[in-house]
Specification:
- The structure is a single chain.
- By secondary structure, the chain is α/β, with parallel strands linked by helices.
- The protein has 13 helices and 15 strands.
- It folds into 2 domains: 148 residues, Aspartate Aminotransferase, domain 1, CATH 3.90.1150; 239 residues, Aspartate Aminotransferase, domain 2 (3-Layer(aba) Sandwich).
- 41% of the residues lie in helices and 16% in strands.
- A 7-stranded mixed β-sheet has the order 2-8-7-6-5-3-4, sandwiched between helices. The chain has a 4-stranded antiparallel β-sheet with strand order 9-10-15-12.
- A hairpin with a 2-residue loop joins strand 13 and strand 14.
- Helix 1 runs antiparallel to helix 8.
- The radius of gyration is 22 Å and the shape is globular.
Length: 400
């Protein structure tokens, strides 16, 4: 729908027209070469890929030889963790956080199956990891700490730099999933100090299907796929040059505009929260307002299921997301909110609103006009539990 109010930008963002324009020449005649080919078309592709790597490195505060383009952020996270322990014969110890993305948590489970010990550090009620808890979790055989920079659900910013300092003193490597942070807050690999980090282009108006793995100079990772050795041997296969160019352009734009983005989205996010807090009783903010992405608002409403609230807003032309997952008709609260100590009811009632630089004040005012009435309607209906979900889904699809 062209008139949809899109407030789910932590899930994905639309490709910026300038990014698409940068990619188009790579699909036209003469721009489609294989970078490994020796002829002119191949050389042109190789030059475009090298320039994309340089642009991405500048935007990240890194060196071009520290950058490997990946199929997506999940693959980059997988290779970061698996590649670290592959070189150690699947032995050693990993410290991570209970609120990590599945791209890290599922890999941690796989590492345990292969013989690696894993400690999952908890968070406080605001969703922030305690550095002292990370320090206490370190062991003589700890090889890696993996801590995301910003949580994708509640938006809390994690103390990655402080963790780097204590890990470095113990000779421990640090990996950070910065997929949700880049473009929303300033991210500089050198300043952050991590050894490895992962990005995904579609989170900051780049194309889906391309990510990036940064490994600080001298940090080696064991390959998890084998082929002709492209991208430092970590992601072998013919490179997707057009998507790498698109990601680099999106990174350039995002890093240049991050300050203005923060001012714009924070003002609108705070307007939305202040308006909701004044108009909706029994509403609770999830996360730490002082340490949070500027664009993210996660909240729960007493007596209302988040899925039902999301679908009712969808019927009104507003796209948001929930903090819960539905499996075979059973709605379960997110692992993030559970780790924060939220009750199952509060977890199931969570809604995430995530803004973008393109979000307009009138869209926020429209949501403020709609959401309180939707909450009251659902409360009058008894919360709109999972029993009526199938009927509501049918109504959503019919209206669309």
């Amino acid at each position: 729908m062209t008139d949809m109010i899109y407030l789910d930008n932590n899930a994905t963002t639309p490709v910026h027209p300038a990014v698409l324009e940068a990619m188009l020449p790579l699909w036209r005649a003469g721009g489609h070469g294989n970078p490994s080919s020796a002829h002119g078309v191949g050389r042109a592709a190789r030059k475009a890929l090298a320039e994309a790597r340089e642009t991405a490195a500048r935007a990240l505060g890194a060196r071009p030889d520290e950058i490997a383009f990946a199929p997506n952020g999940t693959c980059a996270d997988n290779v970061a963790l698996l590649g670290t322990f592959a070189l150690r014969g699947w032995r050693g110890h990993l410290v991570t956080a209970a609120i990590e993305h599945p791209a890290v948590l599922r890999v941690a489970e796989e590492l345990e199956r292969r013989g690696v010990a894993v400690t999952r550090v908890g968070v406080d009620a605001s969703g922030v990891v305690d550095v002292a808890a990370v320090r206490a979790a370190l062991r003589p055989d700890t090889a890696l700490v993996s801590l995301m920079l910003a949580n994708n659900e509640v938006g809390t910013l994690q103390p990655v730099r402080a963790v780097v300092e204590l890990a470095r003193a113990r000779g421990v490597l640090v990996h950070s999933d910065v997929v949700q942070a880049f473009g929303k807050v300033r991210v500089d690999a050198e300043d952050l100090g991590v050894d490895i980090l992962a990005l995904s282009a579609h989170k900051f108006h780049g194309p889906k299907g391309v990510g990036l793995l940064y490994a600080r100079s001298g940090r080696k990772l064991g390959p998890q796929a084998w082929g002709a050795g492209q991208e430092h041997g970590l992601f072998p296969g013919t490179e997707n040059v057009a998507y790498a160019v698109g990601m680099a352009e999106a990174m350039r734009r995002a890093s240049a505009e991050v300050a203005a983005y923060g001012v714009h989205t924070r003002a609108l996010r705070d307007r939305l929260w202040d308006g909701l807090a004044a108009r909706v009783s029994g509403i609770h903010r999830n996360g730490d307002p002082a340490r949070m992405l500027p664009n993210t608002l996660n909240f729960s409403c007493d007596g209302v299921e988040g899925d039902q609230l999301m679908m009712n807003l969808d019927l009104e032309g507003v796209a948001v997301s929930t903090g819960s997952a539905c499996h075979s008709g059973a709605i379960e609260p997110s692992h993030v909110l559970t780790a924060m100590g939220c009750s199952p009811e509060r977890g199931r009632g969570a809604l995430r609103v995530s803004l973008a630089g393109e979000t307009r004040p009138e869209e926020i005012e429209r949501v403020l006009a709609l959401l309180p009435a939707v909450v009251e309607r659902l409360r009058a209906l008894g919360g709109g539990g999972a029993g009526g979900q199938a009927d509501l889904l049918r109504e959503v699809h019919q209206k669309r």
